[in-house]
Design goal:
There is one protein chain. The radius of gyration is 22 Å and the shape is globular. The protein is of the alpha/beta class. It contains 8 helices and 8 strands, in the order ααβαβαβαβαβαββαβ. It has 2 domains: 30 residues; 197 residues, 3-Layer(aba) Sandwich (Rossmann fold), CATH 3.40.50. Helix content is 38%, strand content 18%. Strands 1, 2, 3, 4, 5, 6, 7 and 8 form an 8-stranded mixed beta sheet that branches. Bound molecules: S-adenosylmethionine. S-adenosylmethionine (SAM) binds next to β2, α5 and α8.
């Protein structure tokens, strides 16, 4: 009898040990638990953003940070329709995606791996914080922000992505003549974004206030496709960073 009790205790201990080890491993290997806090004051570099981290619960090959000098960034990529399509069509460009929703970061990383896109790096974090902490200046040739609009209630105003402060950071991290492409389906938000970028001394546009009719980049975001399907208007803005 005593022997049976000892065996049961042993087995229970072993199960506990396995569970603890698994939890520990998950902590170490889950890249999405291992990102700086949104309000972190630490600097971020392009190599940090491009460091290949392991996918949750399975091994993925580690890669070196890219040698590419061609970088593009998408803020709030959601399910990654635009990011993945553009990356597939432009293998010579390195794409960095910033997104606050853990779920989309995991999904897009998995989709990028499935489609063997070695030029896509997704990062969980608030783009406003990440850009303000980026060590390097003048690194991105293009910045995409598709449908970033928070709910219009006053308490959601703090979630506004496109503000004077973002434009200031964008002007710093974008290279000379780099493009910023913004899309929204909310007319009054488009006016606010125009006010932020069209009035910024470091940005210029080729059209009145930066408004353009078509998406010149070919790839489409999910929200963009949905708006087009149901015939909702899309307000598109394109700005260029002036030469330093
Ligand atoms: C309305 S969705 C649009 C998703 C996608 N861009 C599209 O057009 O289908 C806005 C996305 O921006 C993300 N987002 C909002 N604020 C953000 C921020 N400060 N930094 C990074 N991503 C953000 C949200 O999590 C969400 O996925």
């Amino acid at each position: 009898m005593a022997k049976v009790v000892l065996i049961v205790l042993d087995l229970t201990g072993a199960v506990w040990k396995i569970q603890l080890t698994m939890q520990g491993q998950e902590k170490q290997t889950n890249p999405y638990l291992n990102v700086p806090a949104v309000q972190s004051a630490d600097g971020v570099s392009i190599s940090n953003l491009c460091a290949r981290r392991e996918a949750p619960r399975r091994e993925a090959p580690r890669r070196e940070a890219p040698k590419s000098t061609d970088f593009e960034i998408e803020i709030g990529f959601g399910k990654g329709h635009f990011l993945l399509d553009r990356a597939e069509k432009n293998p010579q460009i390195t794409f960095i995606g910033l997104e606050t929703r853990r779920k989309w970061v995991g999904l897009v990383q998995q989709r990028a791996e499935k489609r063997k896109l070695s030029n896509v790096y997704v990062w969980l974090g608030d783009a406003r914080s990440v850009l303000s902490r980026l060590d390097e200046d003048a690194v991105f040739q293009r910045m995409f922000i598709h449908f970033p609009d928070p709910w219009w209630k006053a308490r959601h105003e703090k979630r506004m992505v496109i503000t004077e402060s973002l434009a200031r950071d964008a002007a710093r991290v974008l290279s000379d003549h780099a493009e910023v492409f913004i899309q929204t389906d909310v007319d009054f938000r488009s006016d606010e974004y125009k006010r932020v970028f069209a009035s910024h001394e470091l940005f210029e546009s080729e059209t009145r206030d930066g408004v353009i009719d078509q998406n010149p980049f070919g790839s489409r975001s999910l929200r963009e496709k949905k708006c087009e399907e149901v015939g909702l208007p899309i307000y598109r803005l394109l700005y260029r960073r002036r030469q330093r």
